[in-house]
User: What shape does this take?
Amino acid sequence: MTTFEIEDTYYAPFFNKIKISIERGEGIYVWDEAGKKYTDLTSGWGVTSIGHIHPVIQQALIEQGRKIIQTPNSGLTYSPERAKLLLLLKNILPSGIKSLFFTNSGTESVDAAIKLSRKIKGKATIISAKRGFHGRTSQAFAATSQADNSESTAPVPLNVFVPYNDVTAIKRAITGETAAVLLEPVQGEGGVIVPDDSYLPAVSELCRKKNVYLIIDEVQTGFYRTGPAFACNRPGIKPDFITMAKGIAGGFPFGAIAMSDDVTARIKAGDHGGTFCGNPIGCAVSFAVIRHMIETDIEQNVLNTGRTALRRLNEWKTRYPDRISDVRGKGLLLAIEFSDKEVVERINRTSLENGLILNCKSNNIIRLFPALNITGQEMTQALDKLESIINKVITGDNK
Ligand SMILES: Cc1ncc(COP(=O)(O)O)c(C=O)c1O
Assistant: This one.
């Protein structure tokens, strides 16, 4: 049986899969089993922040793999790798953060923040935004109102959804039963929705006044995706929780929650935990990846390549005002919104044939989120290819 046949027979059908079997990767490229090369403009879904199989990741895996992979219950004993990572993270996190805890994925981080908010506040309601995405485990999924998921999200009375980028809506929604407000600094899965600069500071102030926790979900935006280490590290934003994963360890499954002084003072032994949480190999890889990003000033690369790419997307919008309704983004989290779903389908299909892996959202949005260390030249080549495909599809040259 081929890989396709085995997976189609035995792997649960949760995804509408694309028929490519990826065998290996390097930098911004991946190769399928037949040896065809693709440019991965999704960076493994916002994860391979310094490219596929970067040498610093390989080295950290080998060195730590020779020492120890799992300590006797990750949280019960101490670990020098975890201590090193904690100190490094403290340097790049906002100043109001007191403590961290490590997880294995984004949804786990969000679930923990929701659970702890409810426990500490003694209240149940979580306010989150329409078109937001927070994960697939039960509490994170219940707080997810992304358009794609709305049919499958069971109605949960303890979750209230408000329009994104609307402080007044949150003000109206907060009641005596509200435990926390949960928001992404830029909505990623929802189609790269960038709020006004004043939105999060205003929400932060409102949460303080109303004695409600603010959970900022940086699973997608964290670790330099939008330029700075964290999109919420700006004056006036004081999160009680920051949830993280994806780019934190460049491809190794790992995550974290960061907690404010107030939260840290109120948590007790037993409130949370997990067998693999803060395992030494995850900590070692995460440390290597973050240190590399700091040492190579990845923030500047993200800002420069992101700015150049957005300028280019704007040119396409000017060229095809009837077909491209919007282009937007921050850093290397970019989107092109088309007025026609069928065009996006054809662009996606043609891109795959031509060795370009894109991500299409809500059927009419193409999201670009490549590795953060993509070079200017690599970005230009990828955009040249995409531009020629868009031109052909829109002008009808490739029906
Ligand atoms: C903002 C945000 N939160 C949470 C998640 C869930 O993360 P994971 O898939 O690692 O569980 C995602 C995943 O895309 C996300 O974008």
Notes: The pocket of pyridoxal-5'-phosphate is lined by residues 105-107, 110, 133-135, 184, 188-189, 217, 219-220, 245 (CB under 6 Å). The first strand starts at residue 22 and ends at 26. The two ends are 33 Å apart (CA to CA). Residues 130 and 387 are 31 Å apart (CA to CA).
